[in-house]
Design goal:
By secondary structure, the protein is α+β, with helices and mostly antiparallel strands. It is built from 30 helices and 33 strands. The strands form six sheets. An eight-stranded mixed barrel has the order 24-25-27-28-29-30-31-32, surrounded by five helices. A six-stranded antiparallel β-sheet has the order 3-2-1-6-5-4, with helices on both faces. The chain has a five-stranded antiparallel β-sheet with strand order 8-7-11-10-9, sandwiched between helices.
Amino acid sequence: MSAVKKKPSAKINHDLFEDIPVLQRKWQAALKPGQGLPRYEDVMLGSLGRLADHIAVLKRENGALEISRTGRYVQQWLQDERWDIAVEIVSPDCATVLREAANCALSKRHPYLATCHCVRDGMVRTYDVLALPTSSRWGGILIGTYVNERSAQYNLLDAIFSTTEDGVVSLATIRDVAGAPCDFQIVHHNQSAARHLKLPSSRLQWSRLNDGGNILCAEDVMMRLFDVVSRGGHDQFEVDSDERNLRLGAHAFGDIVSLTIADVTALKRREASFRLLFDANPVPMCIFDKTTAEILNVNDAAVRHYGYSRAQFLRRTIWQLWPPGEWESLDQALEDLAETDHFQRDWRHLKADGSEIEVLTYGRRVTFDGHDGFLVSIVDITERRKAEARIAYMAHHDGLTSLPNREFYQERLKQALEQGAAGNKRVAIMCIDLDLFKNVNDSLGHPIGDRLLQAVANRLKEQARGGNLAARLGGDEFAVILNDAGTSSQISEFAADLIEVLSAPYEIEDQELVIGASIGIAVSPYDGSSSEQLMKNADMALYRAKQDGGRVHRFFETDMDRQAQKRRDLEHDLRHAFAHGEFELHYQPLVDVASNRISCFESLLRWRHREKGMISPADFVPVAEDIGLIVPLGEWVLREACSIAAQWPDGIKVAVNLSAVQFRSRNLVQVVMSALAQSGLAPTRLELEITESIFLAETEANLATLHQLRQLGVSISMDDFGTGYSSLSYLRSFPFDKIKIDRSFVKDLAQRSDCVAIVRAISGLGRSLNITTTAEGVETVDQLDWLRAEGCNQVQGFLFSAAKPASEVEELLVRFGARASKAA
């Protein structure tokens, strides 16, 4: 399609409206008897003269309407100078009227006059379009189409705004020397605006609002308009004017504000009437006289709720709904009502049976039967208040034990410290942690654990009598505040007695349970004067008590703070190490006793500290578990081990240790699948080692996870077998692929017959259940000989190799064959 070249606009000849009847007569004169249509040449050629610019010739080509040729004026109207183009590709408003005129002319086989309204640059232009159907000498039909504009034009927006019932005003912002809006000038308005503002248009146009004279000049209206201009956006508000309610809507476009004005008086009156129709409202409602307080009307819901009949209600004043104790506040409230149109307040009310209820009332000034009164909606909140009281209690007390919770404990501790400082008295706090509670909870279930916590709470409350306070901080952590603590020996005696009481057996559901308690103590003002410092120091003392074996109490000492700082430093370094890649894996071989070959490597986590060198896993793994780092760290170990093992020969497996914390994260199976997929390692070459602690918690869920892992093709190994008290039950619960004999039994194998008996039993158990047995910690040839004699399948230890970095595994595989045969 070629570019359209614009030509100078043709001057509109408005006299051409007289040409339409001339053309119609010419068409009629050219129609010969017996012809269906006149010939094109007789109508459209010859004497057209100046009309040629206004003529377009249309024809149908393959069923589509085409513009065959156009005059200059028509080209300007179409905004297209091309010939032989489809009507559909010109301006849609032109195309629509051309199709209409042509189709009707062809259908009637007679001239057809259509009207076209085109909106160009906001102006509405009206065109007459006359279609003259003619026959062509070459066959077919040509439609000569005459187009011309009428003289009348009008602005579309002006037409809309001038006919709307809403007033429309355009305001230009006037700013002061500081650039702040200080006034507005009316630069445009419609007739409705003049009617709403009750001023003639001549008075409104170009007037400034600061000059006054209409409701827009009111101070509150001006302030709303200034705000709209300053912040941008829009605002809507209502004003009262001459018993009318006008709703104003303001929109800012830079410094121009478009303001609409709507009269909502009738709507407001309908709303007022509707509010009086309250009889069927399910909310109790009444109307009382503002001056006499007499009840003027009530709805059915109020009658039902209060128990009075309607007649009884209407003989009463609102004073008789209030208990005498509320009369003084009611009197003051009625005085305040003289200054307001509405109110909202909580009260106590009396029902017909004398019972009291708590209500929330909403009131609004109304006129009823000539009385100045208030319409009141009443919501009974008695049950809600009781629920709020229960919620308030629950917010400060533990739901299980009913002991004060941590928040209440902290509030009372602050009060105790303030009172202690004022009275020169010492305040002691005790942080209490139950020993062995986790074992009870995990082995017997949470219901039994909850009953045990309730029993502990009862004993604590009994011991912490008087002005002292016992609280549950969470889990199996409790605390006691001694308000007047006395001497250190008295505090120590109280703590010892408390441990003795809490350690006595508990009888729960015909089971005797025995636990213990460890206590950390901090005393003000020596160990801190703030609640935060005291709790922190008592926690550190509790940590020392747990380290010392439990069932003891310890006072805070300055050295504990240094130990805690050391622990905090380790936590910080651990997070830094994980973020900066300071961890690495070393691999220790597992040797098949029968073939004297390496069959597997156990991956062992190592931390090479940037300053302190290698740090033992025994030092940092428990801390990693405490701070929640063990799960992401375990995922890294799994991915790294699989990635390295994928580079080994096909027959070599890799073993990865899993912690109980990883099982609690509940995405272990997905993590294993992801590590295998990313590395390309076959599932049969991955061995996961677990300890009995995994079976102590959430056994059903953990067993399900283990079965899902086995379904992937992964092998499952029980680590440190024989050290737990119920390992045999685990073998019945889950078919392990391997059990590992703990190094404590291997160490004294050549010297102690009981170790030999245990190894023999485990090996025999493995053979009977078709489970591979692996002995850990093999350091001597004698130990290897004993293990081979007892039928152990695999061995692992320093006799063969310490754990090595990944870079040395290949060398170890190459040279190990000779070493293994020598060990034999």
